[in-house]
Amino acid sequence: MELFRQTNIDFLRYKWIAIGASWLMIALGLFAIFVQKGLKFGIDFAGGTQIAVRFTQRPDLDHLRKVLDAANLGDTGIQRYEDPSKNEVLIRVQQQKREGRDVSHDVQDALRSGLAPPGAAPSKLDLNREGRDSLGGRLTAADPDHVSGRPDVVPADYYGKIAERIIAYRSAAGIFRSTADFDRLPDVSATVKSWLKANCFAGPFVLLSAENVGPQVGADLRKKALLAVVWSIGGMLAYIAIRFRSFPFGVGAVVALIHDTLITVGLLALMGREFNLVVVAALLTLVGYSVNDTVVVYDRVRENQRTPKKEALESVINRSINQTLSRTVLTSGATMLVCVALFFLGGEVLNTFALALIIGIIVGTYSSIYVAAAIVVIWKDLRTRRKLQVVPAIRPAPPPPPAAARKKKSGRR
Amino acid sequence: MSKRVRWRVVLIVLVVAGMITGYIAMGYANARREWIGPGKPSLSEALRKGVKLGLDLRGGIHLVLQVNTADAVKAERDDAAEQLQTQAREQGLTLGAVEFPNERAFSVAVTPTTDEKKLEETVKRFLPDWTVSTAGGKWIFTLKDLARRQMEDNSVSQAVETIRNRIDEFGVAEPLIARQGSDRILVQLPGIDDPKRVKDLIKSTAFLELKLVDSGPSADRNALLSTHGGQLPPNLELVEMAATAGQREQTWYLVQKSAVITGRDLKNARPTQRQLGGNAVSFFLNAAGAEKFAKATGENVGKQLAIILDHRVKSAPTINERIHDQGEISGSFTPEEANDLALVLRAGALPAGLTYLEERTVGPSLGLDSIRKGVSASVAGALFVFVAMTVYYRLSGLNAVLALILNAVMLLGAMALFNATLTLPGIAGFILTIGMAVDSNVLIFERIREELRGGRAPKTAIENGFSKAFATIIDTHLTVIISAIFLFQFGTGPVKGFAVTLILGLLISIFTAVFVSHTIFELTYGRRQHIDALSI
């Protein structure tokens, strides 16, 4: 199968339209970032607390809000997370003014007391909260299987393993919805099960994750992310400069990747996506990808320039783009397939990552043609034109045309 | 099969076999480390444990703590002031009031009777780390910069040691405790499911002091001071009683400023159950501590002894008799609290307080979820690519698919061998590598097609295709590797995992695309004398 068989499209004819379109996209992105909503920093960069919990039943967000307001935590944001059927909620709390407060613990305490299910009592254990160690300890103390007298058993180990099985079951099932779930525990004796039912309850939620980022760390991470992006763009510039020994090529590649990064960040902001460390990772991958794509076209241009045939730069570049077109589309397509799989199946964390890459791949493919290649053409055009205008003014006699051609040739390497 | 091709095949088989063996060996090693109970871990266990999983996939807690180094400097200042006073007393020097103008300086007033020459000698001998200046009848002692820096540095390394001891006592598999920058400590504990308890365990300074009680307890501080004429005498201090559940008002003790013994005199501590019910912690003293303790308790039978933890009185039992080398801390402890207190007392006190700068906890069920999603996304992504490649390039596409599978297998092996950590973004890196590895094959195949269109014979087309695409392949891989290196340099945690996976994956992709695919072509077409057409 072949999609493109020796195409001969005059890509660069539309370069001015394309440059206009690029500026429009960048302006749209900048508008989204600076005017409309601003860049929505995730807690990695903004600091604060973020807690993801899974409830036993469909949570009533208004009620949750009331419960958290009562805990006096300042601004809190609550939103559903992942698939609504999973009863998962993401709670965000702003940076606390008072230092040393364990916010994630306070939030959990507030939820626990505000949503206590029937059958909950302070003396009972919450099996949706308890860890292996403490559950094992309680079981050992209660000894429902009566193993303490047996010479062949160390009770702490015996119950430690049972506790581990119970926690593993909870992790795999996601949550204990009610005490009835205790009956389903595999490899646990009936006596332990009845002890669990008498002394434990299924608390309102399971903690999925809790993150707490202080203001200092937030600022640090912001700085590091910016440095990483700046350095990797610098690295690319150096690489291209060394590899192609040509200034306009280097400028073209770097302008293309700044273009890609700006448009991607802008579009993410426009879509209200959160800007966090994982997005920065996606941006850096994108930087690599964008340059990768540009380099393939440049490589071809260089190869085509080696032929002795005299040919205008614009037509060489056009030919090179056409020659690499099917590779460009195929590779972008394959990477895109992978990103689409990540987008739909990878879960919440990888969703924005995949989205950033999907945007980046489209923009990156476009920019290797219409930004990177176009800049080289425009650059050389300007230089030739300037030479043609300036040179006659200095010298009275018009210069012979071959001189200009020779100069142009030496400038290519 | 020509000799050259045979060597290539042998090399490929060796490399792949090496990676697989390495993966399994690392899997056994990892599984054995965590293995409890009799027997050996099974092969399936080893296969699951080959690559170390990051905290975001296996669950656990990631903490960044800041050591409040100023605490250590302040403690040093207090020590120095105390030492100067002790020395002065022993040598019969009279000194005026001691004041603390800031955290790293103290001043001593000199009286007309002070023998300043003798004082100078004492300072030279006992306080070499302090610079002295005089102003308005006061000697001002300031800690030297070098000494302060050393002190701060020591307090951080000591804090790292103490935290490590505590975590070891607590029993966590594969903890990571490392110093980060000048005053930060990174703690990563995989598999922890009770973050609150661990956090308290790490943070508790566990500074234990036993001090003789002058009077108390009382809710009224002034009542305690009234026996001293309403003024706090220089050798005494007021200490608050530790709050117990349900108790609102504060109670105070007036105690001796200098401690009979401190946590440094402990040899061991363990949780005990009291006969009356409730939990307590017994402690045992080392020889030097026992001597001091015996002397103090012998001289003060009938008086109260305050047991002070982190500057709060835990309990103040009455001394019934001379006690030699052990004691008990009682209070309202739960069994876990008693256990943890004994643990931190054994592991030693922190030299300075800690602040949590960053804390990330991932529950075990989220980790399992992420693995499930990551794996299904990877499988789906890979299948999409495989189908696209075979449809577009037919048999040559199968060649690419084989190279991609080898790429994935070798990447797993390399990650195991380098002891790299697989994180959730790392899984994304893994499948992104597949997307990018395809690029090399596409570059080569498109070149071969071009050569064929140009009228070259199939064999020449293959050779030319590979050699012409080579430079471009190196270029494209290097560009992404460069940006991944910066990501590794500046990234943290899971993002670093992404960078590592990407770098390893791309290096392997150069090998599979250029070397393995080429060899497969030669194996398929090399033997035939004449090829009419390529399936591409």
Write up what this structure looks like.
- The complex is a heterodimer of chains A (413) and B (536).
- Chain A has 13 helices and six strands.
- In chain A, strand 2 (76-80) and strand 3 form a beta hairpin.
- Chain A has helices at residues 15-36, 43-46, 61-70, 103-114, 132-142, 155-173, 190-199, 215-244, 247-270, 277-305, 313-345, 348-394, 401-410; strands spanning 48-55, 76-80, 88-93, 125-126, 200-201, 205-213.
- Chain A folds into two domains: 11-42 and 214-389 and 398-410, Multidrug efflux transporter AcrB transmembrane domain (Multidrug efflux transporter AcrB transmembrane fold), CATH 1.20.1640; 48-212, no CATH class.
- The two termini of chain A are 37 Å apart.
- Chain B has three domains: 3-58 and 364-525, Multidrug efflux transporter AcrB transmembrane fold; 74-145, Hypothetical Protein Ta0175, Chain: A, domain 2; 204-361, Gyrase A, domain 2 (2-Layer Sandwich), CATH 3.30.1360.
- In chain B, 55% of the residues lie in helices and 21% in strands.
- Chain B is built from 14 helices and 19 strands.
- Chain B has helices at 3-34, 43-49, 55-58, 69-90, 116-126, 145-170, 195-203, 221-226, 287-299, 335-347, 364-417, 424-453, 458-490, 493-525, and strands spanning 52-53, 60-67, 98-102, 105-109, 130-135, 138-143, 176-180, 184-190, 208-218, 236-240, 252-256, 261-262, 266-273, 279-285, 305-309, 312-315, 326-333, 354-362, 421-422.
- In chain B, helix 1 crosses helix 2 (43-49) and helix 6 packs across helix 10.
- Chains A and B meet through helix 5, helix 6, strand 6, helix 8 and helix 10 of A and helix 7, strand 18, helix 11, helix 12 and helix 13 of B.
